[in-house]
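Exercise 7.
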Amino acid sequence: MNQTTIDSYRRIIGANEVEEIKMLASMLEGRRMHNVNATFEGGGVAEILTRLVPLLNSLGVRASWDVIKGDTDFFEVTKAFHNALHGADVGITDGMFRIFDRYTRMNLDLFDKEADYYIIHDPQPVGLVRKRHEFPGSMWAWRCHIDVSSPNKKVWNFLDDEVEKYDASIFTMPQFSRELSIPQILITPSIDPLSDKNRELDRKTIEKTLEKFDLDPGRPMISQISRFDRLKDPIGVIQAYKLVRKRMDCQLCLAGGGASDDPEGQAVLREVREAADGDPDIKILELPPFSDLDINALQRASAVVLQKSLKEGFGMTVTEALWKGRPVIGGAVGGIKAQVINGVTGYLVHSIEGCAKRIEDLLRDPGRGDWMGASGRELVRSNYLLTRHVKNYLLLMIFMNKDLFRAFSEKFALAPRK
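Solution. The predicted structure, written as tokens, is:
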């Protein structure tokens, strides 16, 4: 469990920011916040909560985290819903809704965590809000981490019946939101600069990791480190690499793992291996959970980091790479567009050919890549670190409680909340 305190970040974010976070936390000392999502490992939500919950506790907020229960049939349905909410052409049946509802009712029977605030993450546990009448005075927020700007209407209408029962909704970007009667709040994800995945590494550690995976430290490496998911377009990455390889010497590392709520991962991994067609310069790494140091080293060793997503929520792998000073080439979708400033922190691309062209540009001019990476690191420092995320959650809790918000407004002479 992470034992880092807010003071550990003082050298990164400055003393004033640390003291401001402590002041906000003092207004919430002893308040209980319970988070629920679908998995303890694999994927960005679990990674955020792994760091966010302990840091909130160190500030005096009694934060906790649990996951819903489900079998393969449930997670196959929720994966189909996930893809459909992203706008993919997925066959949705009435039977899927019955399965979702059955598991929701099962989890309602298991749910007994008493708290002041409930933050329910993504579609899988959205129905837990039906339990709110058993916890009078509690406040509920639905945190949507995915892009639902153009969803399958049948799936969204089904979920919307539950979402409207919440006190507030939280989205990653304004473009992701829906028309709702409840307040909509913007909170972007974050990375922890002190975690094993993001902390500084010495050159010897990086070289040992390259040796471990049979990667050549003397040749430029392109990488995409992400779940094996069709929406991440790993096969498109391989096709772009093959175009570059015809003209330049380089190697490709595709590394990732799965999540317990994503049953498609193994099928996608097989497709990726077939697309690689035995090329010895394409390393496909199925990393086990908690391979944070390996991921850190692979990103730092990369000349170029890709995130060629076709759809994306936020893209924390982009944030991680930028923090390490690496230029990123990403699909012009979702939260990648907020992080990859075209020509400044990397390049946005719309095709395999465009991706290959930008890879070549950066391999031919490493100095440009270093400059972009430095710009990206400062972008992350200003906007996407865990400390900002904690501050947002503290403000959310104050906003949702009228008495706390009144006290906060009086202290800082704000206009009264309507």
